[in-house]
Design brief:
InterPro entries: cNMP-bd_dom, cNMP-bd_dom_sf, Env_Response_Regulators, RmlC-like_jellyroll. The chain is an alpha+beta fold. It has four helices and eight strands; from the N terminus they run H-H-E-E-E-E-E-E-E-E-H-H.
Length: 150
């Protein structure tokens, strides 16, 4: 991913400091389920180290990985948009260290500091656009691979 798709470096220092004042450090062991699609999106993370796979349940027995996230990446965006439910699941692919943010506290901060709110919203939108394009490319690749094997 490019620097433009990293959340924290995109924030001006004063806004980054205000946001980071709400952060707490957490860790997840390898193979830990961080959240499930349909669950309440009441927090989000910025990954410090390790890798997380985002997945979609396609059958009762099968999950498909739609993205792999690493250091500096935003994990979770559903906290920003009602109904505040996860659209995907997430699992630690390796041991993960991250900054965790309480979604309601960040939304309140964005209401108080509308400049931060606008920058955060734009940055999350840019991250989503990048991930959507990457997912689209991955799906097209799988489609081509399946049909060329026939």
């Amino acid at each position: 991913m490019t620097k433009a798709t990293k959340l924290l470096p995109a924030l001006p220092p004063p806004q980054r400091e205000r946001l980071m004042a709400l952060a707490r450090e957490v860790s997840f062991p390898e193979d830990a389920r961080i959240f499930e699609a349909g669950g309440i999106a009441d927090r989000f993370w910025v990954i410090r180290s390790g890798a997380v796979s985002l997945d979609q349940q396609v059958t009762s027995l099968q999950r498909v990985t739609v993205a792999t996230l690493g250091a500096g990446d935003l994990l979770g965006w559903s906290w920003l948009f009602p109904p505040y439910e996860w659209d995907f699941g997430a699992e630690a692919f390796s041991p993960v260290r991250a900054y965790e943010f309480d979604a309601a506290a960040v939304r309140r901060l964005c209401d108080e500091d509308q400049h931060l709110g606008m920058i955060l919203l734009r940055q999350v939108a840019e991250i989503l656009a990048y991930r959507l394009e990457a997912t689209r490319g991955k799906l097209l690749e799988q489609y081509r691979h399946r049909h060329s094997a026939l």
